[in-house]
Design a protein that fits this description.
It contains three helices and four strands; from the N terminus they run E-H-H-E-E-H-E. A four-stranded antiparallel beta sheet has the order 2-3-1-4, covered by helices on one side. The longest helix has 17 residues. By secondary structure, it is an alpha+beta fold. The radius of gyration is 14 Å and the shape is globular. Helices cover 33% and strands 25% of the residues. It has one domain: Alpha-Beta Plaits. Keywords: DNA replication, Plasmid. Belongs to the Gram-positive plasmids replication protein type 1 family. GO terms for molecular function: DNA binding. This is Rep protein.
């Protein structure tokens, strides 16, 4: 599956601490039993886009998660649950945007 995990935009001086917090939050997320039970590992990439109008940065993760065969029948995690888990892992006081998609071969 392909997972995108976001946080709110930050100003330049807040970028380094935001990335540090995201790394810690991601490690917490992957250790949750619910996630560990469903996944086989991950490949994570950090992308940072810039909003030139507001002079802010948008750090976010793109994550490929190989899942166990039983994921779609027994261990499926809904998008809303991924969002709740990411919010909890990041200790956020707002609901972040989380996108989850199934990756299919041709």
């Amino acid at each position: 599956i392909f997972l995108t995990l976001t946080v709110r935009n930050v100003e330049g001086d807040g970028l380094k601490p935001a990335i540090s917090d995201m790394m810690k939050g991601f490690n917490r997320l992957m250790k949750y039993k619910r996630v560990d039970k469903a996944t086989l590992g991950y490949f994570r990439a950090l992308e940072i886009t810039k909003n030139h109008e507001e002079d802010t940065y948008h750090p976010h993760f793109h994550v490929l998660l190989p899942v166990k065969k039983s994921y779609f029948t027994h261990n499926y995690i809904k998008q809303s649950e991924w969002t709740s888990l990411w919010k909890k892992a990041m200790k956020l006081d707002y609901t972040p945007i989380v996108d989850i998609r199934r990756v299919k071969g041709k």
